[in-house]
């Protein structure tokens, strides 16, 4: 890919200079001891987040919901889910965050709603009502579903309507998450009114969920079968399809543009040559999450049994391609983890001996200094890990259960299916946050938590790490300080990204600023690797700092350096 630098991407903007922390509220902190995290819990921990150095929070859905998909199935876009608190609790949290200089963005989930939303209930009650066209209903074909598309969570995208002879409704995800019909201008206006209502309340913006699924091919034609279930992946006909630009441009014009807010698009399926429309000047969003390397360990993020034995050089090349594409078109949102991914230390550090503070710091160095706004997921800053469950009954995540069943259908044993789910379950990132070494990791004083902790909270927790200068938490504070407040700030935020190929087990790159050039070297292997370095070490996850190197250095396994390049 030709290396180009977008002038628009180089323009200073406040949202490029943020450090964002993602909160999964159900698992962050429980203030009322019911085993479920809540808004008051977030408010109580804002001082911790301020001390960490983050400047903006992305809070996963807090809206009214039956919680089939933990809040991504919304039944009232203006209501607050009772287990999370009240509108007053939200206002209190927003007020305290503002007093600490912390901005807040919320999740915008408008590809689908809950089947308990008043619109959908009205659509079911009266097929002639205007709400029937707020969703996608189709007649079946020869007593079968309208087509053979498979949902992201497994099974057909079509669910038969009770009490109607041959009518089905469409759902990209779970059957209790019916898709909204973006072809209907009345529905779109309802969404825009809701978005503006929230922005008028003073939130800083939105992370926009699953937005590339809002446009479906209107022929609704079946596709060649791609699995033993006789179905075919919906993404080929309902993800980032022609015509989506009309909806996204209108959404931006009717809402985001008016408020000068920040928007972060979840944009799976967007090709690099389409980035300009998404994040370029006049693009639909300020930045997007690029998933081209997030699922390097599987063929597709929705089929965990299709595992891939990836190489460090392949990860390196994907990161470089992503960074160059983002740099050429606008701005990106960099991440290692989120609520839909397993813990990064288990995914990217494949030698268990280094799935510890060394590995966690190496990954922090790798991602945090890339060009773009860094997003830290709760627990990442203390090196939280995956869990190991022994029964599918221990999982809460609907996609984990669907992947387990699909793996069995594809011919894998129960043990193999459990292995896939343990490695990849979204529950890995949703376990209760480790505040201390007490029962339930200090997340709740209740005997029972909505999801059981990982089990290693006595070794990995905030309370212990705050006391140690060499902890993962202290390291995150240091890298945040380097990006935000050091002499290297301008280079680390706005400097040009340039990939360096030094060894197939090392991911190396440089950030080129007006006053200095900084280089990152990360050995992602269990072997020692020799690299040529000329400059001053600023940061080292093996704790050697402020040393000058002029020649060949042997990197230890999973060693990571930030170096000021010698002029």
Notes on the structure:
The protein has 567 residues and is α/β, with parallel strands linked by helices. It folds into three domains: 7-112 and 185-472, TIM Barrel (Alpha-Beta Barrel), CATH 3.20.20; 118-170, Oligo-1,6-glucosidase, domain 2 (Alpha-Beta Complex), CATH 3.90.400.10; 496-565, Golgi alpha-mannosidase II (Immunoglobulin-like), CATH 2.60.40. 29% of the residues lie in helices and 19% in strands. The protein has 18 helices and 23 strands. The strands form six sheets. Strands 13-12-10-5-2-1-17-16 form an eight-stranded parallel beta sheet. Strands 18-19-20-23-21-22 form a six-stranded antiparallel beta sheet. Strands 6-9-8 form a three-stranded antiparallel beta sheet, with no helix packed on it. β12, α10 and β13 (287-289) form a beta-alpha-beta unit. α14 packs antiparallel against α15. It is globular and about 75 Å long. The mean pLDDT is 96.
Q: What topology emerges from the helices and strands here?
A:
Elements: H1 7-10, E1 20-23, H2 25-28, H3 39-44, H4 46-52, E2 56-59, E3 63-64, E4 76-80, H5 87-99, E5 103-109, H6 118-125, E6 137-139, E7 149-150, E8 158-160, E9 167-170, H7 185-200, E10 205-209, E11 232-233, H8 235-238, H9 244-259, E12 262-266, H10 275-279, E13 287-289, E14 298-300, E15 303-307, H11 312-329, E16 333-335, H12 344-348, H13 357-368, E17 373-377, H14 398-409, H15 414-424, H16 462-465, H17 472-485, H18 489-494, E18 496-500, E19 506-512, E20 517-523, E21 529-540, E22 548-555, E23 560-565
Parallel strand pairs: 1-2, 1-17, 2-5, 5-10, 7-11, 10-12, 12-13, 16-17
Antiparallel strand pairs: 3-4, 6-9, 8-9, 14-15, 18-19, 19-20, 20-23, 21-22, 21-23
Catalytic activity: Hydrolysis of (1->6)-alpha-D-glucosidic linkages in (1->6)-alpha-D-glucans and derived oligosaccharides
Pfam families: Alpha-amylase (PF00128)
Keywords: Glycosidase, Hydrolase
């Amino acid at each position: 890919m030709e290396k180009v630098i977008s002038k628009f991407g180089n323009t200073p903007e406040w949202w490029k200079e943020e450090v964002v922390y993602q909160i999964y509220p159900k698992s962050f902190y429980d203030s009322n001891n019911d085993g479920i995290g809540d808004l008051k819990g977030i408010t109580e921990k804002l001082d911790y987040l301020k001390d960490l150095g983050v400047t903006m929070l992305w809070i996963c859905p807090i809206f009214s919901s039956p919680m089939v998909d933990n809040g991504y199935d919304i039944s009232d876009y203006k209501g607050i889910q009772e287990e999370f608190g009240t509108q007053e609790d939200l206002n209190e949290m927003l007020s305290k965050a503002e007093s600490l200089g912390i901005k807040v963005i919320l999740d915008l989930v408008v590809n689908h709603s809950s089947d308990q939303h008043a619109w959908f209930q009205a659509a079911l009650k009266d097929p002639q009502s205007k709400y029937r066209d707020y969703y996608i209903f189709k007649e079946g074909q020869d007593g079968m579903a309208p087509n053979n598309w498979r949902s992201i969570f497994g099974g057909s995208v079509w669910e038969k309507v009770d009490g109607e002879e041959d009518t089905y409704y469409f759902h990209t995800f779970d059957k209790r998450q019916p898709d909204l019909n973006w072809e209907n201008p009345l529905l779109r206006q309802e969404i825009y009114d809701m978005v503006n209502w929230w922005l008028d309340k003073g939130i800083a913006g939105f992370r926009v969920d699953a937005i590339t699924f809002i446009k479906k091919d209107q022929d609704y034609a079946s596709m060649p079968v791609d699995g033993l279930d006789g179905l075919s992946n919906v993404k080929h006909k309902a993800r980032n399809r022609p015509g989506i630009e009309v909806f996204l441009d209108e959404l931006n014009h009717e809402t985001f543009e008016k408020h000068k807010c920040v928007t972060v698009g979840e944009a799976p399926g967007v090709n690099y040559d389409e980035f300009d429309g998404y994040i370029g000047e006049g693009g639909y969003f300020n930045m997007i999450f690029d998933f081209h390397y997030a699922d390097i360990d599987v063929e597709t993020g929705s089929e965990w049994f299709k595992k891939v034995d990836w190489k460090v050089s392949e990860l390196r090349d994907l990161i470089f391609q992503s960074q160059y594409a983002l740099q050429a078109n606008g701005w990106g949102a960099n991440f290692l983890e989120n609520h839909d991914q397993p813990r990064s230390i288990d995914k990217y550090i494949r030698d268990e001996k280094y799935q510890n503070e060394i590995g966690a710091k190496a990954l922090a160095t790798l991602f945090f200094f890339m060009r773009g706004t860094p997003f830290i997921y709760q627990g990442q800053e203390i090196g939280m890990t995956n869990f190991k469950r022994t029964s599918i009954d221990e999982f809460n995540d609907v996609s984990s259960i669907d992947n387990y069943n699909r793996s069995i259908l594809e011919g894998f044993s129960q043990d193999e299916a459990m292995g896939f789910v343990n490695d990849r379950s979204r529950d890995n990132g949703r376990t209760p946050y480790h505040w201390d070494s007490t029962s339930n990791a200090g997340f709740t004083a209740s005997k029972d938590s909505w999801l059981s902790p990982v089990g290693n909270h006595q070794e990995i927790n905030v309370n212990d790490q705050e006391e140690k200068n060499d902890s993962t938490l202290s390291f995150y504070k240091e890298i945040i300080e380097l990006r935000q407040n050091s002499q290297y700030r301008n280079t680390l935020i706005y400097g040009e990204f340039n990939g360096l190929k030094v060894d197939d087990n090392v991911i190396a790159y440089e950030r080129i600023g007006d006053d200095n050039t900084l280089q990152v070297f990360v050995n992602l292997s269990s072997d020692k690797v020799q690299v040529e370095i000329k400059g001053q070490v600023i940061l080292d996850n093996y704790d050697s700092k402020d040393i000058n190197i002029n020649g060949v250095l042997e990197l230890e396994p999973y060693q990571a350096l930030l170096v000021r390049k010698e002029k």
